[in-house]
Structure formats: C-alpha cells, structure tokens
Design a protein that fits this description.
Elements (H helix, E strand, L loop, with lengths): L2 H10 L7 E4 L18 E4 L3 E4 L22 E7 L2 H9 L5 E5 L2 E3 L4 E2 L14 H7 L3 E4 L3 E2 L2 E2 L1 E2 L14 E3 L3 E4 L6 E5 L5 H6 L6 E2 L26
Parallel strand pairs: 1-2, 1-5, 5-8, 6-11, 8-12, 14-15
Antiparallel strand pairs: 2-3, 3-4, 6-7, 9-10, 12-13, 13-14
Length: about 230
C-alpha cells in the first residue's frame, strides 16, 4: 500500500455519519474512496459542490465536474451545486464539521503552512485560510518528510496559513494531535516504531498515555531516547 492510500484510509476512520466534510487538493481527495460501509457523509468542495463521490474510474471522468483544484470528481445522487459565495458562506459560517487539507509544514504547536513556497508562482491563497479558521475540526494529510527533511517542525519556515492550530496530522508513519497545544504522538502505523517517528520529526513530541494500544505502535529500543507520558523526546 502506498503512503497516500495509507494516510487516506486512516483519516477515513475519523468520519462520522451525517458529517459535512471538505476535502482539500491532493491526498485529501482520496479519503472519499474509504468511507466506511453504511456511513453517509456529505463531502463539500469550496468551488460549489456538496455530494462529491469517489474519484472517477479511468475513462469515466466528466470534464465539467471538478474539485477546487480542477481535478475531475464524481457526484453522488442528490448532489447539489451552487456558487462560490454560498460555498464560502458555509465555510466561514462554521457549518463544516471537518476539513482535510494537505500540508507543507506543521509546527510543534499545530500551526499549518500549506499555501505557498516563497519564490514559486502560486495562483493565490485559495480556500485554505478560510477552512482552517472556519471548520469545526481540521486534519492535515501529508507525508512525514519531503526529500528527507521533516515536515513536522519546531517552527514553520514557510508562511502560515492560519494561527489557529490544527487538530490532527496523519502521515504514513504516525498520527499526531495537538489537544494540549503541543505535538503529541497518538499512534504509529503498523510496522513503525516510536523511534522511527521521532527520528523523522523535528518537533518535540510528547507521548500519549494510550500510545502502546493504538495503531500498532512498537516499543522504543532501550538505546533510543525515551520519554515518560507527557514528556518530550
């Protein structure tokens, strides 16, 4: 299983029946493919669609039905389309239960940078700033490192999307939360040790009390740095 699929499957476990959920560009769009059987979730795209379905099968995409990034999507029976003013009214009015966004960096306090890299051409902020500020819960879907460099850092070197901390970061290595205003390792993915997560993370990580019971976490070898619950490594 590739990293993107692993991340999307884990985030799908955070969905609840009846939620209104926004999926950002990239890995987040894959979450729609893994909605638990029997669960009804309403996916919203900020360009004006509620009722986004799974990614279209090859050859079945409609060029006029796209997500906010311009990628083809499917629409479920009963889907609704509307203008961007209505769409952002939903976002800014606090009506989204959850948004799943990609990330370039997240700092140890949960602040996200995901909208630009200085010196590179970007089309604009898009909806990221509104989504982080307006959604009831924010999950970041991203790979743990980029070109061997950690993406979960002590301090973001890229422009922040919002000063509001996100709730959860899900990578191919781990699930990290920020409920106490600090990066806390909640789970490791199957076959991944705490030591491996720490080595791939620049931010100081606290260890959750339930860590050993979730996500297939493995104990830290005796030679590795360790931390008591609530301390950092």
């Amino acid at each position: 299983m590739n990293a993107q699929t692993l991340i999307a499957q884990r985030i799908a476990q955070e969905l609840r029946d009846g939620m209104l959920v926004n999926l950002g560009i990239g890995i987040p769009t894959l979450v729609a493919n893994f909605v638990p059987k029997g669960m009804h979730v309403f996916f919203q795209s900020e360009n004006g669609l509620i009722g986004t379905g799974p990614v279209a099968d090859p050859g079945m995409a409609l060029p006029w039905l796209t997500d906010a990034g311009g990628k083809p999507v499917t629409a479920l029976p009963g889907a609704s389309t509307f203008d961007s003013a209505m769409s952002f009214g939903l976002i800014r009015g606090g009506h989204l239960d959850l948004t799943v966004l990609g990330g370039l960096q997240v700092d140890q306090h949960g602040r996200l940078a995901n909208w630009m890299v200085p010196g590179k051409m970007v089309p604009g902020m898009g909806g990221a700033m509104d989504l982080v500020a307006g959604a009831k819960r924010v999950i970041v879907a991203m790979q743990h490192t980029a070109k061997g460099r950690p993406k979960i850092v002590r301090e973001c070197s890229l422009p922040l999307t919002s000063d509001r901390p996100v709730d959860l970061v899900v990578t191919e290595l781990a699930v990290i939360g920020f409920s106490e205003g600090r990066a806390t390792l909640l789970e490791t993915m199957d076959g991944v040790t705490v030591e491996e997560v720490v080595a791939a993370t620049e931010a100081d990580l606290a260890l959750a009390p339930e860590l050993s019971q979730k996500g297939g976490a493995k104990p830290v070898p005796e030679s590795a740095p360790t931390a008591a619950v609530g301390e950092t490594v």
